[in-house]
Amino acid sequence: MASSQRNRAISMREIADFLQDDDDSDIEEAQNKEIEDLLSDLQVVVASQERHDDGAVEEQEQFREPVNQRGRTRERTQRRFRRGRQRGGTVRSTTHGRSSQMQITLREMDEANGWTYVPRERPLEDPVFEEVCRVLAPIDENSSEIDCFSVFFTNDFWKLLKTETNRYAAQMKTKLARRGLLKPGSMLDKWTPVTLEELKLFFSIIIHMSLVHKESFDAYWSTREIIHTPYAAKLMNRDRFRAIYSCLHLNDNSKYIPRGRDNYDAFFKLRPYFDELCRLCATSFYPGEALTIDEGTCGFRGRVHFRVFNKDKPDKYGMKIYMLCDAATGYILNMVPYVGDSKTVEQIVTELSEPYFEKWHTIYMDRFFSSPTVADLLWLKNTRVVGTVMPNRRGLPQEWRQQLLEVNEMSFCHCGNLTACKWKDKRDVPFLTTKHAATWTEVTVKAKGGLAKKIKPDCVLDYNKNKIGVDLNDQYVSYYALQRKCMKWWKKMFFHLVARAMVNSMVIYNKQQPARCQLRFSQFLMACGEGIVPARSTDDAGPSHGAHLIAKTSRLVGRHFIERIPSTEKKTKVTRVCKVCADTIKHETGKRGRKETVFYFPDCNVPLCNDPCFKKYHTVKNYHL
């Protein structure tokens, strides 16, 4: 290219010399004047062209691409030049079609923005975290599992559930009756207000269902021996359980503001419970130095306008919650639901971590949350950041971004206390950290044929160790979650939040126990499910509204003992109607029969004659035939 331009300049010089030597007498004076003007213009062009050619040759020699980069595709080359960049670290600007003489390298641009490529062995500032990880709730080593459970399932929670469930049932019953749609004998027609004891029995069955998976609710009350489990039927009648599940509510529907109006709250159905749960999570436990920000997903394939899709999650479709967790235990400290709003990443991170500012916590986050803007924002709040970052984030150094690394090679760049690290394992992995400098460690990893040694940046090792907080919580929930199809999104989310609250309960229990006494999550669930069942009164004449009902086949298994019915203040010899005799008479005559007995089966709370009714009741399935 340079030689062709020089040849063109020489030919123009020869033309000028020829015109100067031409001395033909036939040329008019006017023509001589035109020739002089042309010669003047040509001399200016020749001089300018020579200067430009010398600069072009010099530029090409200085910024010639390496041989192994010449094979890049035309498309990528065109895209690079459209951005005004040239491989080799130079930015070229043009004005009115002529190339500018000023050449600015990418490194100069980065240095102008405060970045430096001089590696540091330690951060400019290395503050110390001085707080202690501890339980703030009134729990000690003598506290039971149910005490820790009650930290997050308080009396206010049970009262809220009772009030709103009964309110919703009354509203629906009135609404259907007004329209003439209330069917006699239907669930709502037979509805009676739910009590606190029934709600605790209901939740005990819910915990049982999370431990013992079956295909449907009805399967838990099935009498078929192959799938029979008597626990649910011992506590509550199936129809009563379904009625409570259908009417379960957490807020007053009469206060609901439709979507599209001012003050609309997409989380209205769960708002009282969700806000109280977040408050209890924050005030019951103080975390260690390492915190984790990530998103969790509550699986749901139904219709809700803020449902999301993420192919990398176990539940690909569902509702998203941003969470702040303690990295060591998986304890949830704070939550922010995603409801389709336009909150920025900076707003989400600030809302989650604001209670832990000014303590020099280190927050570990992935590439969705991490950026130089977020790192600077948290550094001003005396909080450090470690995390992967998208390479196209605004504010990252340009030359560092475009560097091509070999396998196991790394590159560092610093701006104040912020360090940008790029390390190539199988691919480039960019990191941002305000905790580490340009340091690395040799580690032993698994490789083909055995073990191999590899160097890794310290920020990568630290990130891999502490990024598991939210994942640990997700792992517990996925094992023992109530997986039931539900048309109501908020019920699916409610039981999802209940499972996460149970994980927090287990964390504070294990935190106060020595290592040999700590429980697995399944063991903790079993203890809580049994512990919330209210103690029975032996003077009860019978179960109320299905509570404490005995499974029809639980009488056929296990060990059974007969006792006398306890006396009362008013009556020394208490008698009740024998169940076997009454059912037999009713089957034979169609009328209710009465035969009094002083004996009963205490576990079932069923009055029975000593002989033969007690034996018949516990050995014959259809004892009344």
From TrEMBL:
<dbReference type="InterPro" id="IPR032718">
    <property type="entry name" value="PGBD4_Znf_C"/>
</dbReference>
<feature type="domain" description="PiggyBac transposable element-derived protein">
    <location>
        <begin position="146"/>
        <end position="506"/>
    </location>
</feature>
<dbReference type="InterPro" id="IPR029526">
    <property type="entry name" value="PGBD"/>
</dbReference>
<feature type="region of interest" description="Disordered">
    <location>
        <begin position="50"/>
        <end position="102"/>
    </location>
</feature>
<dbReference type="Pfam" id="PF13842">
    <property type="entry name" value="zf-Tnp_2"/>
</dbReference>
<protein>
    <recommendedName>
        <fullName>PiggyBac transposable element-derived protein domain-containing protein</fullName>
    </recommendedName>
</protein>
<feature type="domain" description="PiggyBac transposable element-derived protein 4 C-terminal zinc-finger">
    <location>
        <begin position="570"/>
        <end position="618"/>
    </location>
</feature>
<dbReference type="Pfam" id="PF13843">
    <property type="entry name" value="DDE_Tnp_1_7"/>
</dbReference>
